Amino acid sequence: MKKVALSLLFCGGLIFGQEVRILTLPEAISYALQNKADAKKAQLDIRKGEAQIAQVKSSAYPNISIGSNTSYNPLLQETVLPGDVFGEPGKQIKVAFGQKWTSSNNIQLSQVLFNQSVFTGLKAAKTTREFYIINKELTEEQIIEKVAHAYYQVYQSEQMLLNAENNLQITDQTIKIIKGLYDAGLARKIDYDRTVVAKNNIIATTQQLANSVQLSENALKFMIGMPMAEKIELPNQTFDPAILPDSDPGNFEDRAELRLASKQLELLEWQKKASEAEYYPTVGLIANYGFVGQGSKFPLWNGSKNGVYWSDLASIGLQINIPIFNGFATKSKVQLNEIDIEKAQTDFNETKLGLDLAHSNAITLLTNNMTTINMQLENVKLADEVLSNTRSNYQYGLATLSDILDAEKDLTQSKNNLTQAKLDYKLAEIELLKSQGKLNTLKEIN
Known about the structure:
Blueprint: H1 2-11, E1 20-22, H2 25-35, H3 37-58, E2 63-72, E3 78-82, E4 92-96, E5 101-114, H4 116-183, H5 189-224, E6 231-233, H6 256-276, E7 282-295, E8 308-321, H7 329-395, H8 401-435
Parallel strand pairs: 1-6
Antiparallel strand pairs: 2-5, 3-4, 5-7, 7-8
Family: Belongs to the outer membrane factor (OMF) (TC 1.B.17) family.
Subcellular location: Cell outer membrane
Coiled coil: 404-431
């Protein structure tokens, strides 16, 4: 009936035939992990890490390239030679060297034999991929936390609406009592009018709370990446505390935040080693093979019969580069890396301390909220008794209408306070699970 009322408020009528998805918390989390943009981007980062590994590996593989250059020389460069060379002493003779057409074709192979930067980069790339995997886990935990918050907010909004609807029923009962007394001449008309005004105010509040339910459902849909047009309904399940305070903080070393910070330290260590690799010499092998064609005609499809002559050439070389001095640039780079490592270590220690604080706070919140829940349960029971007694006293002239209306407000406020206390407890449960690294258990809660 509540869903029917909400549909009437927002749509002006029911949209028959549209399927309503019953959404449990594990289903909401699963949907978010499959459809939320942050989860998709975290998965893409893992693929990015794999591509980076392949990119670094390429530096260790042989590189093969083919080059070809064909040129036409309309004017050949002339060189002046002494005539003695040609048997004409005392003269200077111009001689043109080369041919009108020249074609040079070459294939080159290069292979890194030793390069510390390549080897270091390959290990760093693997660490980067591991960093992305841990970051994906942390992203999923953050998504689970946000979805759980949004999910419980929907429950709170629905419970507040239910409290208002119950209050409306209570007010209707009060109106019937006042109306009966008024018809019998035992109550004033102003008392009846005041109860009608109170009812209208509750109706207005109920409509506002219905809006709040719809807004909280929309927020949940956005949080899990679900289209706004899809209809959802949360199942009838308890909103009561499910997790008791647990002083065991678990193993902090297994927390995604710490593992991510640790992996960040490892990456910075590799970055330092990459800088130190500039001190090492590099050794590479280069092999070339080519052939050159020269003649008066286009060489690529002509041979000696057409005045084009071909010759081949080959070379094998060893390239060695030994760094001697670069103005202390490498030393400065290593020092900067060491500073980054020290800063990251400080952040690591701060993160660990923050996790310990979060766990301690979650225990305190759970304990305090449990006390508040028990107190509010007693409050609701007592407020209900006060309202019943006040109604009875009113019929005998021992209480005023204001006493009844105040008792109704107190009952509603007590119920709302109980709802808020339960929500606070559920949010504290999330914080406790987060501090213990157990947020994934929310995917299995029924």
